[in-house]
Design goal:
Length: 102
Amino acid sequence: MMTLESFINFIHVMLLLGIFGFISSYTPDKKTRYRPTVSIFATFLAGISLAMVAQIVTRWDESCQAPQPLLTLFTACVFVAVAHTKGNVAKLFPRIKWSHHQ
């Protein structure tokens, strides 16, 4: 039987895998502009998600003793944002006009 702590960790792992899946499966349109900062952030977010999955899974017994529900809630919020944009992390950040001319 699954305890509440194990269930929280299981949900956390599934959310993290969802974030990784959405970001890694995103394919940009041909007309979109490349934004290196957004690409670096997306790679960082996907990598951190996968690393957290590895940490939770390899230390499952220790993780179940002290689950982090607030971190799981934050991860759920990030998952909803990434899922809403279908993995397009650029839609999470506004475009900034750097020129002073209008």
